[in-house]
Amino acid sequence: MTAQPSDQRSGKKKRLWIPFMIGCGGLVILALVAGGVFLYAGWLGYQEAPKLIEEEVPDLGSLERYVLTSAQEALLEEVGYPEAFTILFYEEEAVDASLQDVRLETWQYYSRGVGYTFINGELVGEDSIELEGSPGLDLLPYTPDQFWSYMNLEQVLAAAGLDTYVEIPLEKEFLEDADLYYGEALTFGMKDGELRYIEALALTPVE
Q: Is 118 exposed, middle or buried (0-12, 13-18, 19+ CB in 10 A)?
């Protein structure tokens, strides 16, 4: 699997211009400074507030797909694609002290009451799961092999076909330069402009 470069992110930026006046009296200058502080605080609040974004799905042509392992292919042949899934991308230290990429996946099959966990495509766990209040689930519009490590925002939106989503910047005290996104039955997190977490949610039938 080869990750695509993620140096650019799409989006609209707004600039707030605060006028600077010279030669005014002390009270006027003080008022302007105080007003500037409140405007700047409001701008920061806007930057950190959730934003509903509507735009065309990025046209990036044919996107690369993650290559499933033999263990994952065997599961697909047996039970099909999962009804929900979660993927984490991170690095961990190897025995030789080098850093290696890790793809941690959980595929959930609620109708069968079982979830499977993969690390770098190898099956490492099988657990019983349940989803209360729903006799059946609709087919997900997403599959795990649509997403790979360190995708940029445009690639995620193009792969998922999202034209409407909510962006929630995380507080710097919690995690710097990170954002959460919510789309239709999809949640994903970006850090430094790179995909680190994605979760496709089970779809319950509409009555």
A: buried
- Residue ranges covered by each domain of the chain: 14-49, 53-200
Pairing assessment for the beta strands 114-119 and 99-109 based on DSSP bridges: antiparallel
Closest by CA position to 152, among listed 199, 192, 187, 103: 192
Q: Hey, what are 127's tokens?
A: 């657990």
CA distance 87 to 85: 7
Q: How many CB atoms lie within 10 A of CB 107?
A: 23
Digitized pLDDT (tens) for each residue of the chain, 207 residues in all: 444 443 333 333 333 323 333 343 443 333 333 333 333 333 334 345 688 999 889 888 788 899 999 999 999 999 999 999 999 999 998 888 788 999 999 999 998 999 999 999 999 999 999 876 555 788 899 999 999 999 999 999 999 999 999 999 876 555 667 899 999 999 999 999 999 999 999 887 665
Give the bridge partners for 1, in sequence order: none
22 is written with which tokens?
A: 């010279």
